[in-house]
Amino acid sequence: MVKRPRNKKSTLNNNRPHKKRRDNDEEIDESLADLDMYSKKKKARFDDDGLFMTSSEDESEVEEDALERPPKTADEIRVEEAQKRLEALRSQVGDDEKELKKKLLEEKQHIYKSTINSITNQTSNYRYTHTRGHKKTPTCVTLTKDDKQAFTGGKDCTVIQWDVTTQKKIGCWKGSNYREDGHSDYILSIDVCSDGKYVCTGSRDGTIKIWDPRDPKGVVIDTLTDHFGFVNGVVFQKIDPKRQQFAVRDIPLDYLLYSASSDRTIRVWNIEERALVNTLYGHTSDVHDIDVLYEEIAISGGQDRGLHLWKFETESQLKYSTSAHTTPINSVSMINEKLFLTGSQDGSIAMHSKSKMKPIHQFNQAHGGEWITTVSSRPFTDQMISGGPDGTVKIWEANPKSGFRLHHQLHLKEGQITDSVFGHHHPIALCTTGREQRLGRWKVIP
């Protein structure tokens, strides 16, 4: 076999690129060396448009450190704030661990104050006034943080704004019979945010309406329609300037709203953005009531007789024993983040602890065998009130050690008690009364 000689031209062509590649490599190495020498004298950076810029070596290095340092997480901020607060408390109480722990609990308000004994049980010191406003049974009531204004909702689909001092109507926000954007069915729940910017109402028509309370006629800012059943409860996250509170998922806590519905869900809303944040499942039947205080912890109770504790930040829940009540729970209230109250259709009231599955105290036939339609506590104290369809409001001492002790009772002749709320800073309590019960018409007063 004759070997064909290699093409000389092709051999030359094959060698040329290698030579050029080496030349190019040498040029790149020289360029990198020059750039390295240049960077020792000048520090390189890019502007917002991606253009190459230089800065002199004597500029402050704080900017570079700030750019390189990642943003702090919410947990890191909490730890830093807690350490600062702990150091401040140590400077006040010294190294006494018991006193330090007591101070910390007082700041978190986990220790409630016994104030019921400061209220005399003489009838002459209890006085109440009655004011009419709704054409049908009022079902819900709430107070602004300064206790100056109150809002009530009723089965006439109307919201009434009240001046607490003069007990006169400031505004009246009518339903769909008078305006297109009003509620078309019973209003079952109402609450106002801490700064008074928004009032939210939940209705039997399955909607939540966001109102501007600055207008006497009521301006509907928006309507939330994600629920598939009656909206039985709405409650805003509470805000306390003395407590260190952090936004959850960048949501301002002032405008974090919880709603409970007959569709068996708890929904969490960002009212400022008019957006649904989360939907929580766990109840097996209608949810009748919900309550929340200063931490991102809510409690709810309903038709399934179960008390649920919801932790919004971790999206978890605790379900407590249903053996406390033999019939559905009508009302729930938080004493603090560790103690809760429930009132049931079986006529009993119960006190629950966060760390125990069964209630720590229970009082049967609290209203003589009648249903408990509402329970309400003054947060972080031992004061609570309960109401029933017999028109009686009872004032109790709720003590986690000794249980319930009846302090006083008032009989209101105007009808059945449908809802109640304590004043935030003043020794007052508001109740709504009517011919019918809040969630139905099982018993109607003629």
Written overview of the protein:
The chain has 446 residues and is of the alpha+beta class. Helices cover 16% and strands 36% of the residues. The protein is built from four helices and 28 strands. It has helices at residues 8-41, 62-68, 74-93, 97-108, and strands at 42-46, 52-56, 138-143, 149-154, 159-163, 168-173, 187-192, 199-203, 208-212, 219-224, 231-236, 256-261, 265-270, 275-281, 287-292, 297-302, 307-311, 316-319, 329-334, 339-344, 349-353, 361-363, 374-377, 383-387, 392-399, 403-411, 416-422, 429-434. The chain has a four-stranded antiparallel beta sheet, with no helix packed on it. The chain has a four-stranded antiparallel beta sheet with strand order 7-8-9-10, with no helix packed on it. Strand 17 and strand 18 (316-319) form a beta hairpin. Helix 3 crosses helix 4 (97-108). It is globular. The relative contact order is 0.09. The model is unreliable at 7-22 and 37-59 (pLDDT under 50).
Structure summarized in a few sentences:
With 446 residues, this protein is of the alpha+beta class.
